[in-house]
Amino acid sequence: MGADPVKYQLDESQIPTAWVNLLPDLPGEPLPPLNPQTGDPAGPPDLTPIFPMGLIEQEVSAEPEIPIPEEVRDIYRLWRPTPLIRARRLERELDTPAHIYFKYEGTSPAGSHKPNTAVAQAYFNREEGVRKLVTETGAGQWGSALALATRLFGMECEVFMVGVSYDQKPYRRAMIETWGGTVHRSPSDLTEAGRSQAEHASGSLGIAISEAVEVAAGSEDTNYSLGSVLNHVCLHQTVIGQECIEQMGLAGESPHVVIGCVGGGSNFAGIAYPFLRQRLREGTQTRFIAAEPAACPTLTRGRYAYDFGDTVGMTPLMPMYTLGHDFVPPPVHAGGLRYHGDAPSLSALVKEGLVEAKAIAQTAAFEAAVRFARCEGIIPGPEPAHAIRAVFDEAEAAKQAGEERVILFNLSGHGHFDMSAYTAYFAGELEDLEMPDEELAAALESLPEAPALA
Ligand SMILES: Cc1ncc(COP(=O)(O)O)c(C=O)c1O
Fold first, then answer.
1. 0.90 cut: is pTM over it?
2. Per-residue pLDDT at 400 exceeds 70
């Protein structure tokens, strides 16, 4: 047996004690969200009907670090710290001089990074007497994570699940129900928003968000919970990158490039922001690559503009790369990446050139995921499969340059409930759906009236 280590593990006592807030380090003044009626910056009164004050404060906080409550850290101990793994077999398979490391977030009970924020959000809501959380879910990862987290805090959970995923992923539904949550197929006839979108039967994250926000806004003891995009969600995920910094230290290396897939930006932020802070403060030269699906190319082909976070137009306007809030992405298998917008913080970093964005076709993603699984064993979720494709490209570039580059990526979840997508891939049934220019232009016509962004 070779003596070279494969896993870099931390002790439970090394679970981070604070989340990293990148906002104060971002270049330039942060652009505020806007109230769509008045055009003024959206303040706490715009958000209190659906979010607790504890999370609203985090959303706008200028503190570089936010302490993690002990009760949250205690639940994190169920699966954190997650392992950092050196993909030595993959390196040999790719015949690359690159050193490839991945952080594996699939060890959480729900199988992805999503519980990192679900637990934190449930905690801050429970602290303010909220009894129930309502949310949307794409592939079901987020809905199941929130069902778990609310259960651990003795709360209720109601989930609007994007129609196409509801049909494709019955076991995710069963997970939500096992943890005590209720699931509806979206668009549903339970809300105004759902009824107004009935013709989009396959659904979208934007529609499901509208439904969940409507239910939360209409009930006193019920709040809404979002699994990505917002500052506080990206913040909670930074336990990932902080652990990575310690673990890369154990390996005696630091990454030349950090890679993550992007749906709304939270797992990418989680792994990247602690390293980005080092780059912004200490001038490290680390590169950052955000991998998104070519069928929903928000960062690579979207417009940097103020837009709604949901389809029907109920949320504040957010400054972000967007494909237009009523863009309904094609039903690609990486359900968690089908979102029209992106986190404002990540959008700003892409705009500044600090993060590179890359669009990946789904068959190329699955090809890479299968090759990865055959070396490293873990079957990746379709979402991180996009990151793996980008890793392959970087490993090839290192080979061409003859350089021993260090590549770190976030394996944000396993694909055990996504095997129908693998079956479709093996049957040659996966299509590479590129968004035609005319469709993009039409989708962008729906952008609301708002100040233009430079
Ligand atoms: C495993 C996994 N990775 C990535 C994502 C994309 O979301 P985000 O960009 O917020 O990390 C999802 C979303 O559901 C997911 O389930």
1. yes
2. yes
